[in-house]
Amino acid sequence: MEIQITANTRNELLLRNEVEFTLTFEGATPSRKEIIGKLGALLNAHEEKMALDSIKTQYGSRIGKGLARIYDTPEARARTEREYIISRGQPKAEAEE
Predict the structure, then answer these.
(1) Any domain includes 96
(2) Which branch of life, at top level (predicted)?
(3) In this structure, is residue 92 part of a structural domain?
């Protein structure tokens, strides 16, 4: 999997960087957790400060485009992002019986 940053815009009002990227991969589309890990390593950001908004691929293509947001603090992410965006890519909680 290879990630190329196409745009990195600073949003001072929301204390975040908005990152657009192109993803090249072999086989199945990588999971959100793998993409966040690779982006975090590439941009020196911790996963708890990141939110992966979207990944779009075309049928039969091994190239995807995505949008991620990297916040200055985990608190800024919790204040701004919707809960379902934050929970994407996390393991599902086991149902208590």
Answers:
(1) no
(2) Archaea
(3) no
Give domain status of residue 11, yes or no: yes
pLDDT in tens, the chain (97 residues): 999 999 999 999 999 999 999 999 998 889 999 999 999 999 999 999 999 999 999 888 999 999 999 999 999 999 999 998 888 867 666 655 5
Residue 36 lies in a domain: yes
Asked if residue 26 lies in contact with residue 47, where contact means CB atoms within 8 angstroms, the answer is no
Of 80, 24, 77, the closest CA to residue 48 belongs to 77
Full-model pTM: 0.83
